[in-house]
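> call design_seq(struct)
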């Protein structure tokens, strides 16, 4: 989460993988018709998007785009669950009543590609000098490609930031070793104060743990095979278990973003690593205490044995429904909404974008605290473009990968759990690849 959108809903689209065939039998879907034909002049360009600050900002500006193309725009904002259900019904029925789709490139794009639901944008992005595809950050740009085809354009990005209390430490820890040792020193569990708080829920924690995994030299997949049984992955599991188990609050294994974030906001923890997109919570008087608002600091992800390797992901992207009768107009919308001018405009309002040019422009960073802007810039340069296994059935993969995390946080022996999870993940990858090829 995606993650600012986690404050809305973070349930995955995995029901799509299980329900694709079944939902194809859905009865008559209004405005659905076989691919082909031509849209009437009064047909609106239909956009379906997550109810997110980016989408809200674009929706306020759609009058400008309507005047540009001479066609009415209908933009529907939904929760993640509603969006999932709508795509499932419409696309299985080859529906033409959605043109532009807001999608998560790392969560459902592989499945949508497998089902042939997304239009190929490769020629459009590559042949449009004004759009400047190479201006998009390398990691989010690469995440937009499936099987050699550009299937989406990133519009919102996120990275993990180290949130810390300036009143408790002289400066942020630069290494994971320093983070752990300092967190342990500051922990006073008998007084309800913790050195560290973070996600520990089995599946939900995987995306944030990914940066710890990469920084220990590991990865989810190595040469196409399970990498979670490697010594690097084992070290990352054990480290994260120490950090949350010894310096974190009780009940950490039940914590997603929604449970962890308020603990830091209420001044009950010294350190917290999560998405930079949620930073405003710690400056909001309705959420954070005065002490936190006055002392919160922002720093890049600390370095592990393999260096500092955070994720830098496109949390939300724009794609075009392959069955749309307005694909040219849909592309014009993407050119406008994700173009250089709009990206700079929105980032100036505090919405993290995906273009390198906006991150290099001091004017677009002025709305962020200075140390947060620097943290974002550094993490973006170092970042990898994924924070979960890139497979069809993402939810199932996260559940397998997260099992040793829970064991580590609970203080159990990680090695046998990781060995079992590695075998289960290896078997899963075989079945998942068969699904891709079917």
């Amino acid at each position: 989460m995606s993650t600012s959108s986690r404050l809305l809903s973070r349930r995955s689209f995995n029901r799509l993988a299980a329900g694709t065939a079944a939902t194809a039998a859905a009865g008559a879907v209004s405005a659905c018709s076989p691919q082909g034909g031509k849209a009437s002049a009064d047909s609106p360009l239909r956009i379906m998007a997550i109810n997110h600050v980016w989408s809200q900002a674009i929706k306020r500006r759609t009058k400008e785009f309507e005047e540009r193309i001479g066609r009415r725009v209908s933009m529907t904002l939904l929760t993640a669950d509603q969006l999932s259900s709508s795509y499932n019904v419409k696309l299985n029925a080859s529906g033409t009543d959605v043109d532009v789709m807001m999608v998560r490139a790392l969560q459902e794009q592989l499945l949508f590609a497998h089902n042939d639901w997304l239009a190929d944008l490769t020629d459009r992005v590559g042949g449009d000098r004004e759009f400047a595809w190479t201006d998009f950050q390398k990691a989010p740009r690469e995440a937009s490609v499936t099987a050699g085809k550009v299937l989406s354009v990133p519009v919102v990005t996120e990275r993990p930031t180290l949130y810390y209390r300036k009143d408790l430490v002289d400066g942020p820890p630069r290494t994971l070793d320093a983070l752990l040792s300092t967190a342990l020193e500051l922990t006073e569990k008998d007084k309800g104060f913790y050195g560290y708080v973070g996600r520990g829920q089995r599946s939900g924690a995987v995306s944030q743990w990914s940066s710890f995994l990469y920084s220990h030299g590991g990865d989810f997949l190595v040469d196409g095979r399970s990498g979670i049984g490697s010594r690097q992955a084992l070290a990352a599991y054990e480290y994260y278990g120490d950090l949350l188990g010894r310096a974190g609050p009780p009940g950490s294994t039940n914590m997603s973003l929604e449970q962890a974030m308020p603990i830091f906001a209420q001044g009950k923890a010294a350190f917290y690593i999560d998405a930079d997109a949620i930073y405003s919570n710690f400056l909001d008087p309705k959420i954070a205490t005065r002490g936190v608002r006055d002392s919160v600091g922002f720093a890049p992800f600390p370095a592990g044995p393999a260096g500092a390797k955070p994720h830098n992901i496109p949390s939300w992207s724009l794609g075009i429904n392959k069955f749309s009768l307005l694909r040219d107009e849909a592309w014009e919308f993407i050119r406008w909404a994700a173009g250089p001018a709009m990206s700079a405009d929105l980032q100036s309002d505090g919405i993290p974008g995906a273009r390198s040019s906006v991150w290099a422009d001091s004017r677009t960073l002025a709305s962020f605290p200075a140390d947060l802007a620097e943290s974002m810039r550094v993490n973006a340069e170092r970042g990898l473009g994924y924070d979960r296994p890139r497979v069809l059935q993402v939810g199932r993969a996260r559940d397998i990968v997260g099992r040793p995390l829970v064991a580590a946080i609970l203080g159990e022996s990680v090695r046998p759990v990781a060995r079992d999870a590695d075998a289960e993940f290896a078997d899963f990858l075989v079945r998942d690849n068969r699904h891709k090829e079917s």
